[in-house]
Amino acid sequence: MVSTYDIAVLKGDGIGPDVVDEALKVLDAAVSGGGPALVFEEYPSGADCYVETGDPLPEATVDACRSAAAVLLGAMGHPDIRWPDGTEITPQVELRFKLDLYAGVRPIYLYAAHHTPLKDLGKGDIDLVVLRESTEGLFASMNGGIELRGETAVDSMVITRFGTERVARYAFELARQRHHERGGGQAVVTCVDKANIFRSMAFFRSVFNDVALQFEDVEPGYEYVDAMAFHLVERPQVYDVLVMENMFGDIISDLAAGLIGGMGMAPSGDIGDESAIFQPSHGTAPDIAGKGIANPVGAILSAAMMLGWLGHQHDDESATRAGERIQKAVGEVMADPAAATPDLKGKMTTSELGSAIAAAV
Questions:
Q1: How far apart are CA 309 and CA 304, in angstroms?
Q2: Residues 85 and 145 in one domain
Q3: Domain contains 112
Q4: What pTM, to 2 d.p., does this model score?
Q5: 3-class DSSP state for residue 57?
Q6: Each residue of 189-222: pLDDT tens digit?
Q7: Contact status, residue 128 vs residue 240, Cβ threshold 8 Å
């Protein structure tokens, strides 16, 4: 019996619609060969939605995301569209809090040697996951920071035992899963913090250590976040799963994306116990929206992550295999240096690259 999944689609702003359209194209190709049935329904959200309605994230959209099997999101926000206090509109971040999506999963995989600025690395030599806790940390101050008299501004770092335990546990389980899938090597989870300076980070590490005791088959590792930035450039091939606070993860994941061809190559998932949203790691890039030059690979790989998550959640091998077909197709297509949008020094349009991957699927 074929499983059916309702997918909420939030195309958002800027290049969001451009890349989501290609992800939908590839998803259709992937499931047409024996995958589950996917029913897509689009909902309004984002900065343009705010201009039109006064609300960047209508409650009906939140309800749809909560009830859907999964959410596919493009990108949201615009630098020129802001709240009255001057902060940028970020409904995608608000959704993480509303749906309690605590695990920000950002796979970093090198598909071709010509994508990386580093020397002597080829396909698969960079294969790690940046895992950010997505509901606490410095982001917990979003819309709640304090500004006094135009002279002093304060945002607080929030680290709880509950929040740290569950993201650390997710990290160890993910490393164990990756170890089984690869069939060899040592599973390692690296705690990335600043425990030598900040009390909040020392607490984060202590909770991480408590969780590590429950996973004897997974090796714990430790890096201070500043050293991590250096070591990722120096030796990215030695890392497996990196777990860290929200803001650190925001920064480190962008750095890591630069090692595999840029933000256009980086997928992500924001995952909770009941809901999950999948989106490319990049922003809205309004300056190139609608020009047909945005890289759709991050969105396409996010769609593959979505299928993998659905397969895991529902014990559905057909969804898992469909996600794997997409990943394999991306690898086949991206092996050709000419298969690239302008960000990768290529001449293909967004649609041409999406179509090439769909055909490979």
A1: 9
A2: no
A3: no
A4: 0.94
A5: coil
A6: 999 999 999 999 999 999 999 999 999 999 999 9
A7: yes
